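Data card: per-record layout.
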Amino acid sequence: MLLIPAVDLKGGQAVRLLEGDPSRETPYGDPVLAALRFQEEGARYLHLVDLDRALGTGHNREAVEAIRKALRIPFELAGGIRSLEALREALALGADRAVVGTVAVKEPDLLEAMLAEAGPERLAVALDARGLSVVVSGWQERASVSALDLLSRWAAMGVRTLIYTDVRRDGTLMGLDLEVVARVREAWPHTLIAGGGIAGLQDLLGLKALGVEGAILGKALYEGRIRLSEALEVV
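The structure for this 235-residue chain is written out next.
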């Protein structure tokens, strides 16, 4: 299973939000240093999120460029990618893969155009939800469509990589809701990456047992609850 450290960017700094709430952030300093530390500890891939773009409050283009120049490993980029222009910019910044969420839920025609532009290998879709209740627009708005209906639609459209985040638990260190992840796994026939609240090795072992291909790790790494080098040996 691929372990993917997350570096969330806000105001040029690495931060973690509690349950996706921009008013409840914990700063972690220079994002380049965070990315390099994860690379040195054995990470083979990183998950970068431009929170300012997701929330419509700016961008962190310079920080993404600095991370790209410092890294030897690939990264995916998420946050506010809601147009073909934004998709092209994300890939031009050096992202191995762009991650879209709101567009995939609200604008299926645009998602189709993005898949045609980037190809399924360079475009992942984010299913951000409170359990299975889908949220969009930087996790600030609840969508009316059901998560399971979306999964069926996306698979039929040609999406091949899904990133599921349980917003209720993100940044809380509460541990995963593995029952919900199991339902997503059952409904999604392709590559599944999961995150949101991972607190320890038991969560990672639970994901592995479900056949999940990847896990996104955030606060547990920053707070020392999980050592990446040790986790890599286990999973």
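Known properties of this structure: The radius of gyration is 16 Å. The chain has one domain: 2-234.

See the next section for split statistics.
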